């Protein structure tokens, strides 16, 4: 059953940029009341690696129907160069953070509520240099399954995007970004990288998909299959 988003209260952690900012606009257009949280520069401050910021936000704001997190922290290096603190930061963003969001926001979440987290293609495409990101993304897929059982009937889902032109890759020099996009397009079944439309429309659908829970939806142009 499709649940309307009109009038629903949605918290988007990581909503100040990239996929989160795009989803904030889309959800508002669909009639939702959107609150954006980020580590800085927004009215609501949440750093998912700092439980006190989550607890404060949950205690001071009205209940949310849906809580989304796009938080991620990268540590893409060969095994020989791994640093414990940066491994922990990557897991804090993708695993501990979502668990703590559930801990503090689920108790007040009304019937029909849901959590939506962001995993990623690397969890299903192992390659040297991405062991931390891959493992954290795969762990998040396990997390939504387990959490969906414990929090039922609240729903818990994830989206695992493939390489998406979300703005996040703009930090790369043009040549490296082009090479990344060309490689990702060639490695997909659809011959292109993802757009904000691809991911944002899937996220909106999942927020309203009343009979979908415990799932990771792969929005990756079939990249896992090649
Ligand atoms: N774009 C892609 O190609 C791609 C591919 C696979 C998976 N994904 C996943 O999709 C999600 C969104 O990607 P994106 O392209 O929009 O990336 P992005 O532009 O880097 O956005 C990441 C967001 O996470 C927030 N964030 C990071 N650490 C946080 C923390 N500790 N607490 C709260 N917020 C934190 C950032 O907010 P601040 O403003 O506070 O820094 C930012 O809004 C990520 O989880 C990413 O791993 C993306």
UniProtKB/TrEMBL annotation:
Keyword Oxidoreductase: yes
Gene3D superfamilies recorded: NAD(P)-binding Rossmann-like Domain
Keyword set, alphabetical order: Oxidoreductase
InterPro entries to which the protein is assigned, alphabetical: KR_dom (IPR057326), NAD(P)-bd_dom_sf (IPR036291), SDR_DHRS6-like (IPR051122), SDR_fam (IPR002347)
GO molecular function list: oxidoreductase activity
Ketoreductase domain sequence ranges: 8-166
Oxidoreductase listed as a keyword: yes
Protein family per UniProt: Belongs to the short-chain dehydrogenases/reductases (SDR) family.
PANTHER family in the cross-refs: DIHYDROANTICAPSIN 7-DEHYDROGENASE (PTHR43477:SF1)
Name assigned to this protein: NAD(P)-dependent dehydrogenase, short-chain alcohol dehydrogenase family
Origin organism lineage: Bacteria, Bacillati, Actinomycetota, Actinomycetes, Glycomycetales
């Amino acid at each position: 059953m499709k649940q309307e988003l009109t009038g629903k209260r949605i918290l988007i952690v990581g909503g100040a940029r990239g996929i989160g900012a795009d989803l904030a606009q889309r959800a508002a257009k669909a009639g939702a009341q959107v609150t954006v949280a980020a580590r800085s520069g927004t009215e609501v401050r949440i750093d998912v690696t700092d439980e006190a910021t989550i607890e404060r936000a949950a205690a001071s704001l009205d209940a949310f129907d849906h809580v989304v997190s796009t938080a991620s922290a990268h540590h893409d290096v060969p095994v020989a160069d791994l640093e414990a603190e940066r491994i922990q930061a990557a897991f804090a963003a993708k695993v501990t953070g979502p668990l703590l969001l559930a801990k503090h926001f689920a108790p007040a979440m009304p019937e029909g509520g849901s959590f939506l987290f962001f995993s990623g293609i690397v969890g299903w495409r192992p390659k040297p240099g991405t062991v931390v990101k891959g493992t954290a993304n795969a762990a998040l897929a396990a997390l939504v399954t387990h959490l969906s059982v414990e929090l039922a009937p609240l729903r818990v889902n994830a989206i695992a995007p493939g390489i998406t032109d979300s703005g996040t890759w703009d930090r790369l020099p043009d040549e490296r970004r082009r090479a990344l996009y060309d490689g990702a397009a060639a490695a997909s079944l659809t011959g292109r990288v993802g757009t904000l439309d691809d991911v944002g429309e899937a996220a909106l659908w999942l927020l309203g998909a009343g009979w979908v829970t415990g799932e990771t939806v792969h929005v990756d142009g079939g990249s896992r299959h090649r």
